[in-house]
Batch of 2 targets.
Target 1
Amino acid sequence: MRETHDAVKIGIVSISDRASSGVYEDKGLPALQEWLTRALKNPIEFVPRLIPDEQAGISATLVELVDAGCSLVLTTGGTGPALRDVTPEATLAVADKQMPGFGEQMRQISLAFVPTAILSRQVAVIRGRSLIINLPGQPKAIAETLEGLKNADGTQKVNGIFAAVPYCIDLIGGPYLETHDEVCKAFRPKSAIRATPAA
Ligand SMILES: Nc1ncnc2c1ncn2[C@@H]1O[C@H](COP(=O)(O)OP(=O)(O)OP(=O)(O)O)[C@@H](O)[C@H]1O
Ligand SMILES: Nc1nc2c(c(=O)[nH]1)N[C@H]1C(S)=C(S)[C@@H](COP(=O)(O)O)O[C@H]1N2
C-alpha cells in the first residue's frame, strides 16, 4: 500500500439564494466536505464558497477557484428549470471542454431515486487543469450521485460519477487521487495505475 498521497485542493461551492441569505442553514458545503473526506485517502485542502443563484457571480467564483489551484471544483444547487437556476449556464461560460458523460450518469443514477431527475441539467467541464462538476441541490443527492447505487449486499449496482474523477484528473495533469474502495472504487486503466513504492 502506498504510504503517502498527493495533496489536493478542492473547491466546494453551494449555490442557493436561501442558504446564502440565511433563510435556511446551508447543508450543501457540509455534505460535500463529509463525502469527499470519507472517500479520498489524499490530504484535502477545501476552498468553500456559499453564493446566490447569480450567473456572473457563479462564473467568477469558478474562475477564482481554478486560478487558486483547485484540481476539482464541485458545485451543488441551481441546476433545475426554475428561472433562478443558472448553474449550468455559468459553468459552460467558463469551459474549455465539456464532459457530457458526468451529467448523463448523474441523471441515470438519480432516476432511481426520483422521477424528477430528468429536470436536472447538471454539466461537467474542464477549465485549465481543473475539473468542474455540477451536482443537484438536494443535500442528500450529493452522496447519491457521487457514490452511485449499491445492491443490498454492498456490491455496486450503478457506478457513481466519482469513480471516473481520479483518472480524469490524471489526464489533465492533476494530483494522483486515491479512494477508499468501500465508499467509491475509482477506475483507472492498468497502464495508469501508479506502482507502489518499495518499502
Ligand atoms: N444549500 C442548501 N442547503 C440546504 N438545503 C438545500 C440547499 N440547496 C437546496 N436545498 C434543498 O433542496 C431543494 C432543491 O434545491 P434547489 O437548488 O432547486 O433550490 P431552490 O428551490 O432553487 O432554492 P434556493 O436556491 O433558495 O436554495 C431546496 O428547495 C431545498 O429544500
Ligand atoms: N439523487 C437525486 N437527484 C436529484 C434529486 C434528488 O432528490 N435526488 N432532485 C431532482 C430535482 S427535483 C431537480 S429539480 C433537479 C435539479 O435540482 P437543483 O436545482 O436543486 O440543482 O435535481 C434532481 N436530481
Target 2
Amino acid sequence: MEVRDCLVSAPGKAILHGEHAVVHGKVALAVSLNLRTYLQLKARSDGKVCINLPNIDTFVCWELSELKQLTSFLSDKKEEMQRLDAELVKRLREFIGVTNGNLDSSASAILAFLYIYLSLFGSGDMPSLTVSVWSELPTGAGLGSSAAYSVCLAAAFLCATGNIPTPLKEWEQTGRWCQEDLELINSWAFQGEKIIHGNPSGVDNAVGTWGGMLRFLAGKIIPLSRVPLLRILLTNTKVPRSTKVLVARVKDKINKLPSIMIPVLDSVDAISCTCEKVLTEMTCEPITGDHYNILEELIDINQHHLNVIGVGHPSLDTVCQVTAARGLHSKLTGAGGGGCGITLLRPETDSTTLQGTMKDLRDCGYDCWETSIGGPGCRKEDSRRVRPLWRIWISITVL
Ligand SMILES: Nc1ncnc2c1ncn2[C@@H]1O[C@H](COP(=O)(O)OP(=O)(O)OP(=O)(O)O)[C@@H](O)[C@H]1O
Ligand SMILES: C[C@@](O)(CCO)CC(=O)[O-]
Ligand SMILES: [Mg+2]
C-alpha cells in the first residue's frame, strides 16, 4: 500500500484547574498553548517502517515483514476501540523487549506509535513509511507533550488510511477537519495516551485535538468560546517526572485514605467551576481587580490541594515563593512532581515586574516565558513548510 505524504501539527496545553481530580470524574479547565508538535509522514518504497523522534533521541527502523508477524490475530476492530487491545499491547511489549515495569520515554513513544500504526493498518495492506516528529514543547513537563504526540500520530495515520480527508487545498497553508473527523482523531489519540499514561482522563488529547479553552468532565468536552485574554507566565523547573507514575500515586492515596482525599477532589472540582464562572463574568462585564483577586485565590488554594494529594515538588514551591515575592500567584500545571508551573499575570503587571520575576526564576535554573493561550487544535500543515519548520525547531533547541 502506498500512502500520501503529509505534515500535521497539534498544540500543547496548560491546565488552569482540575489536574488529577479530572481522572476521578471532576471538572478540569484546560487551554491550548502556542507551542506545537509537528509530525511528517513520508512514504517509502523499501519495505521499512521508520520513526525519528529527535526530542527523545529515538531513531528506529523495522522491516514490514517483522511487523506483519505481530498482526496475525488482528481483526478489523475499529468500532470497539474504546478499550486498549490488551493482547496487542502484550505482543508489542514483548516485541520491543519490555515485559514488566514502567516504560521509559523512548519505549512509551515507540509503543504508542506501533499500537496506532498496527491497529489502523494491521488488518490490511501495511505501508512502508517514515514518521518524523519534532516539538516546541518540553517533553514530560506538564504541557501535554504526550497528547500532542498522540494526536499527531492519530491524525497522520487516519489521513494515510483515507479514514479522514486530507483537508488542505493547494493554496492553503493549514487546514482543519470537521467535527466528526476530529472526534475520530481524538479517540485514537486517547489510545496513544492510554499507552503513555496508563489511566488518562482524556483532557489533554481533547485540547490537542480541538484547541482553545475547554471544560472537561468525565469524557464530556465543552468548548468555552467566550473567554477573557489571560496573560500567563510558564515556568519549566526542568525536574523530570512521569505523568503515569504520578497518576498511579494519586490513585493509591485515594484508595488508602478515601475519606480524606475525596473531599479534596471535590474542592478542586468547586475551584474549576468557580474559575469558569469568573472567566465567563469577565467576558460580559467590565473586568475588575476583584475578578483577578478571586482567580489568584483559586490558584493558591488549588496549589495547596495539589500538595496535599502528593503531586507537589520543592521546585514548584520555589516557583510559588519567587513569584509571590513579586505579588504574583502560581500553581503547578499538568501532572506536577516537577515539570511546569503557571503564573497568572494581571493586566497591570508591568514589564519591570515581569522581567524581574523572569530573572529570579531563571536564576533558580528554570526556563520561563510568557505564553499566548488558545492556539488552534490539530491541523494539516503545508508540507512545503517542513524545511522552515525544521529550521525553527533546530534554532530553538540550539538556543
Ligand atoms: N516530541 C515527542 N517525541 C516523541 N515522544 C514524545 C514527544 N513528546 C512526548 N513524547 C512521549 O510522551 C512522554 C511524556 O509524557 P508525559 O505524559 O509523562 O508528559 P507530558 O505529556 O509532557 O506532561 P502532562 O501529561 O503532565 O501534560 C515522553 O516520555 C514520550 O514517551
Ligand atoms: C494529571 C492529569 O490530570 C493531567 C496531565 O496533564 C492526567 C490526566 O488528566 O490524564
Ligand atoms: Mg502527558
